[in-house]
Amino acid sequence: MKYEFTQFLNFELIFTETETEGSDTSDSEPTKDKLVARINRKEKLQKELKESLLKKITKQAIRREQTRKKEEDVLFSQYTNYEENLRCDTFKNEDYQPFFDSSIWEDYEELVYAVERDKTKEAIKVFETEMMTPAEAIRPTGDNIMHVCAEYGRVELISYFNKIGGELHSRNYADEFPLHLAAREGQVDVMTYIFENSPMSIDSATVDGWTPFHYAVNNGYLGAVEYLVAKGANINAVDKFKRSALHWAVRYDFKDIVLYLLGLSINLELKDREGRTALDIAKSLENIDMMSLIKDNIKIKLKDKKK
Asked: How far apart (Å, rounded) are the C-alpha atoms in residues 225 and 234?
C-alpha cells in the first residue's frame, strides 16, 4: 500500500490508501502490528509536514518583519516631526511625496502587479499561496491590500478581501483609509462600495488634515469631487495649514474644479496659516484667468446679498 495526502492551509491532512503494483490484496485483514505501524507512519508524516510548513511561514514572517522594520523607521520619521512640518509650505509637490509613495516591498511585488493589471484570480492565488493576511503592510507607507485595491479601483478584489477579514477602516501611517486612496485616484466605484459596506465618515482626515474631498480636488478628478459633494462632504474643510480644497484647486490650476466649487457655497474668505485666501494664491501665481474667475464670483455674490 502507499499513502497519498492532500495539504490544506490549516495543516489538516486527508490520507487515501491506494494499491501499489504487485501488492497482495488477497491477504486477510491486516494484523494489529501492521495497523499500528501504519498509523505511526501517518502521524510521523503529518508531524514532519507541519514542522516544514511552520518553518517556511516563520522564515517568511521574519524576512518580512526585518524588511518592514528598516523601511518603516525611515518613513515614519517623515510623519513624526509635526512641528517642523507646520513650518513647511506644502504647495511644493515634494512635500506630500510620502502620501504618493507607490514603492512595494519585494515579497509583495507579484501580488500588487496582479492587482494593477486587474488579474483577479491571479491576485487571489498569489495571496493564498504566500499565506498572506489582509492586514499586512505591503508598502513602506503602511498600505495593505485594501489600500492597493482601492487605489487601482478593483471593486471585486476589495470585496473579496473585505469578506475574508480585510478592514475598510484600516489606516496606513498617514492615517489614510482605503477611501482616501480611492478619492485620490478618482475611483468612484470603489468609494461607492466602501460607503455601501461600512459606516465610513466622509470627512475622515489624515494626519495632515486631508479629507477624501481634498484628495479628489488636489488630483483634478471632477467626477470624484461631484460624487463626494453629493454624499455630503464638507467642501470648506481645511488641512493642518488651514488650506481648503479651493486653495489647492487654485494652486494646481484646475479651472473646471474651481468653477464647480465657486458654484457651491464655498467660503472664499478662508485664510491659510500665511493669511492667504484662494484669490491671494491666484495673485501670487500671477494666474490672471483664475483671478478673474474668483473676482467674478465675488461680484455675483455681492449682488445677491444686496437683493
From this structure: 11
Q: Write the class of the CATH domain 243-307.
A: mainly alpha
| Cα 149 from Cα 295, distance rounded (Å) | 41
Residues in Cβ contact with 25 at an 8 Å cutoff, skipping those fewer than 6 apart:
19
CATH architecture designation of domain 98-234: Alpha Horseshoe (1.25)
Kindly report, residue by residue over 125-168, the tens digit of the pLDDT.
999 999 999 999 999 889 999 999 999 999 999 999 999 999 99
- pLDDT at res. 254: 96
- Cα three-residue angle 231-235-240, rounded to 5 degrees: 125
Return the number of other C-beta atoms located less than 10 Å from residue 29's C-beta: 7
Distance CA 50, CA 27 (A): 34
Cα separation of 204 and 194, whole Å? 13
279-301 pLDDT, tens digit each: 999 999 999 999 999 999 988 88
Helix (H, G, I), strand (E, B) or coil at 306: helix
Average pLDDT, the chain: 82
Interior/surface letters 197-214, b for 16+ CB within 10 angstroms, e for the rest = eeebebebbbbbebbbbb
- Stated as kind and residue range, the H or E segment containing 15 is strand 13-18
- Domain regions of the chain by residue span: 98-234, 243-307
Q: Do domains 98-234 and 243-307 have the same CATH topology?
A: yes
Report which of residues 83 and 268 the model is more confident about: 268
Of the candidates 195, 155, 161, 163, the one whose C-alpha atom is nearest the C-alpha of residue 179 is 195
CA distance 228 to 292: 26
